[in-house]
Amino acid sequence: MAAAPAFLPPADFGPPGPIVVTGYSRIVGTGMNDPAYASGFTHDGAWLGYCAEIGARHPANTTCEFVSQRGETKNLSSDVGDDFNAAAKRTLDAFVKEQKLPLVAGGMGRVSAPPLTGSWRFARDLTLVLDEHAQGKRGAAVRVGGRVGSEKPVYPILVDLPPAAPSLPFHTSWVNSFGLSPDGQELGLVAGFFCMEWCDSFAIRRLPVARLAAQIYNDTGMRHHGTKDYAGSAALFEKAVHADPSFALSAYNLACAYARLQRPSTRAALEHAIRLEASAKTRAAADADFEAMKSEPWFAAAVK
């Protein structure tokens, strides 16, 4: 990861510590859905995904889907065409065993997903928060976010799926697994979606830890910025930029807060934001946050 820009004051995140998450029930069975029986990262973190037995057929149609860090996909099935194939099922089972894919335990209605374990450098500040049973514009959704200290939580990540048909939106969602990659760099979310027997599916999301932390700091900072607490927003945007120096949105928001406070670092912050995303020039030129800076020669040059 790129180093934090030199104009930033040091950030004190405190010592590394355990990741704490609320809202992760780990109970994935509703009594009607088909939760994945294996879900999470493979032993080396190369793949994130799940295996599930879908439908009431016997032998069941077992389906596995995986996503790599680079966005590559891997799909395994017990079927060849529309028919169960014993050799294909053995290949699938061997992959799950060799890759040590985490298994869920228990029976329908009390299936327990693996716990989230591991540590990160934001333990003093951040608590992760999941909203497993949210509703979005397209139907059932899972929201991923967190809170800074005792602040209200923010949810920068919304996970949902398009309906199988306009008349069949997903009405139920759950988190089938939420875990930390073996290298500690990503959080892996596997979410399930259900609308009776007509549609049963899963979403897989690899969430870089640094970016998610930066988004939580940033979105909490925006709440302060909206109430004109610019010192409070600046402090949170600074932590967002420290968490992920490549996150263009928090870099731009920090420049806005500095401009409101008329801090000498405004220029360096805006120039950093523009280096990350050239469209920041146009945005800054029309942004009321920079009103006090618009007569400065450096500002005119920066947004030119």
In short:
The chain is α+β, with helices and mostly antiparallel strands. The chain has 7 helices and 15 strands. It has a 4-stranded mixed β-sheet. A 4-stranded antiparallel β-sheet has the order 3-4-5-6, with helices on one face. Strands 13-14-15 form a 3-stranded antiparallel β-sheet.
Assembly form of the protein: single chain
Which stretches of 5+ consecutive residues score pLDDT under 50? none
Q: How far apart are the termini? A: 29 Å
Mean pLDDT across every amino acid position: 94
Q: Tell me the total number of β-strands.
A: 15
Radius of gyration: 23 Å
Overall number of structural domains:
2
Helix/strand order, N-terminal first: EEEEEEEEHEEEEEEEHHHHHH
Output the number of helix runs.
7
Helix content: 25-40%
Structural class by sheet pairing and helices: alpha+beta
Question: Helix and strand layout, with pairings?
Answer:
Blueprint: E1 17-18, E2 21-22, E3 38-41, E4 47-54, E5 61-68, E6 73-77, E7 79-80, E8 83-84, H1 86-98, E9 119-120, E10 126-136, E11 139-148, E12 154-160, E13 172-180, E14 186-194, E15 200-208, H2 209-226, H3 230-243, H4 248-261, H5 266-276, H6 280-285, H7 297-303
Parallel strand pairs: 2-10
Antiparallel strand pairs: 1-9, 3-4, 4-5, 5-6, 7-8, 10-11, 11-12, 13-14, 14-15
Helix pairs in contact: 2-3, 2-4, 3-4, 4-5
